Amino acid sequence: MATATDRVVGFGLVAFSLVLFVYYTLWIIVLPFIDSDHGIHRYFLPREYAVIIPVVAGLLLLLFIGVFIMVVMWKSRKPAKKLD
Questions:
Q1: What pLDDT score does 81 carry?
Q2: Computed from CA positions of residues 11, 65, 68, 78, in that sequence, does the dihedral angle turn out positive or negative?
C-alpha cells in the first residue's frame, strides 16, 4: 500500500504531466489557428522550440540511460583472475 507521501508525489507528477501536455498541445495544435497579433502568443515560445526542446530532452534521456547502464555494468564487473 502506498504511503501518503507517495500519493502526494504521484499526484504532483500526474498534475505536472497534465499541465505540460495541455500547454504543448495548445502550443502546437491550437496556436497556429489564432492570429499572430493576439495576446495569447505572449505566453508561448517561438515555434522552432517546439522541435528543439523535445529533441534535446530525448538526447538527455538517452545520455542518462547510457550513463546509468555504464555505472551499473562497471560496479557489477568481477575482478579478473590472476594467472600465476
A1: 74
A2: positive
Q: Which three cell numbers stand for residue 29?
A: 495544435
Tell me the CA distances in angstroms from 17 to 13, 22, 31, 58, 77, one per residue in order.
6, 9, 20, 16, 37
The CA distance from 36 to 23, in Å, is 17
Higher pLDDT, 33 or 1: 33
CA distance 31 to 34: 5
Give the CB-side neighbour count of residue 73, counting CA atoms within 13 A. Answer: 6
Band (pLDDT 50/70/90 cuts) for residue 5 is very high
Q: What is the pTM of this model?
A: 0.68
Helical segments of the chain, H only: 4-25, 49-76
Task: Count other Cβ atoms within 10 Å, centred on residue 77.
Answer: 8
